[in-house]
Design brief:
MetI-like fold, 14 helices, 301 residues, mainly alpha
Length: 301
Amino acid sequence: MSTSATAAAVPRERVRVQAKPPRHRVRHIILGLLVKLVVLVLLVVVIYPLFWLVTGSFKTQNEFVNQPIWSLPSHLDWGNYTAAWTTGHMGIYLRNSITAVLPSLALIIILGVAAGFALEVMIFRGRASILLYFLLGIMIPGQMILLPLFTIYFRLGLTGSLWPLIITYTATGLPLTVFMMATFFKAVPREVFEASTLDGAGMLKSFLFVGVPMMRNAIFTVALVQFFFCWNDLLIALTFVNNNSLATVQVGLLNFTGQFGAVQWGPLFAAICINVFLLLIIYLFLNQRMMRGLTAGSVKG
């Protein structure tokens, strides 16, 4: 009887052992939970400041001063956005930023792509030294050139316009753009440009009709980086803009003060919301354009 009982117990033990999940499966489940926890924490870190910014843009000045910072607004005060656009002159600041950034971005892209093509595709003596000089431009801190540039702009009579911003943005954005575009052109096989030359295309046609279309996605990437650099700049704009009517968005956000220098928090948060979500829309639009260009280029034969 003991033998039969032992024999009957063996299958049960085997079934019980087989029912246990494998060790690697438990590890996989734990790892998946940790990944989801990390993603949840990152979402909170990213989304909560935006939520706090949006809710703050609807608060009154009294709610900012007398209630906790995490409290929700009692009602949606759309007057903050009206005050930010009219009294805060947000429309003027946006116009000035667009006027300063778009010409700078166009010059950076045109000159940077052309210089990258010339330094990497064209063969001439001293091109390595020229590329090294561009790299030295990346290493120079921007704070070191502000005072000499201000002196030059003042003597030329440009301090009362947006030309100092356009010139400085172009000069500071070109070194990185040239280096990145030269790197992208280096990845293109030389046989492509040699084939275009054999077909009768000159250097200019090879650049416009062969090099630029192949670098379309790289140009979008560089343009996106340089656009955010120029748009979010505060130091250069604060140094060269001495007139409130020429202030950019980042400088204009410093001017949301009321009587006796008190900060008007509601209109300030509304102005920051306008700036942040405008940039977010632009980023999402350019990002989708870039991804569509990569997908379209991958299926071409």
